[in-house]
């Protein structure tokens, strides 16, 4: 069976886990160096496999944050799928180091102590031990520690499957840039919670404006970041990425791109509030456009839709659970703006996934 190609995300995850084991052992300097290297690898816009194939270990050493020792480990993983000293640590201390240390208050040394004292290997075992009051027998743990750990596990379960924005953003940028280069694509924008810059991300939503969706879907399926295709329709493709997250591609006609971008950026509560504004004006708003008695009023850009509703464009970061009152506060009525301000607003391009600039009118 052919081994799956090692991705940048695979390498970054291995380096980050190795950093945790170095911290557990009290190795000086290496934990910070390997953590820094993991972030550098995640931020690359080229596959490590291609860099190594073209220039060997020296090409890896030339990358920011990658020294000789780390380059050797990366090269070994690209060849065999393994980092030898990481495998040795896993055998010596067979625990879910990443999962346990993701909990507030549990560092690598405490995770090791829990394993040595109670045989705890993962978060599920830690939860059972805390619920039984068994952690009090572990040095530096007590009743208060048990309560805090159970609270941290509860919070983690609420955010199950979500990743920090800074971890997901480089991957989303690469997908966005790759799809923007597909012939026939007029625009490609990462939407959803990434565009709203939420602290944690559940999945990746990508919206593309193109008149022929099939070439876009095929290009999406063949991206190096994609591991498995879950489903594919005429304009929608759902995949599993190599980092374990799901990604959803929607391809829409350029003339309705603005309405679709507004809809798929969300949040759900914000979209509901915006639809209430449309209904009060005798309009209907959905992902296809803004309509009056079945006839399109606006759809091509977000600015067009907001202007037709009598509202100023709202940055994605502010489109959260606002309710009607919050929407009214954050979307300044267009009729209250000067003529020059309205012209500037309509001329402003819609924010991309990386935009964080707030307009002065808000």
Topology:
Elements: H1 8-25, H2 30-43, H3 48-61, H4 68-80, H5 84-92, H6 97-101, H7 108-118, H8 123-131, H9 143-158, E1 163-164, H10 165-180, E2 185-190, H11 192-195, E3 200-201, E4 204-210, H12 213-221, E5 226-232, E6 236-241, E7 246-252, H13 257-265, H14 268-280, E8 284-286, E9 289-292, E10 295-298, H15 302-308, H16 323-330, H17 339-347
Parallel strand pairs: 4-7
Antiparallel strand pairs: 1-3, 2-4, 5-6, 6-7, 8-9, 9-10
Helix pairs in contact: 1-2, 1-7, 3-4, 8-9, 13-15
- Parts with pLDDT < 50 across at least 5 consecutive residues: 334-362
End-to-end CA span: 57 Å
Number of helices: 17
Question: What helical percentage do the residues reach?
Answer: 40-55%
* The CATH C-level class name of the largest domain: Alpha Beta
Total count of domains: 4
Q: Oligomer, anyone?
A: single chain
Instruction: Provide the β-strand percentage band.
Output: 5-15%
**Arrangement of strands in the largest sheet:** 2-4-7-6-5
Name of the CATH superfamily of the largest domain? DNA polymerase, thumb domain
Largest sheet: 5 strands, mixed
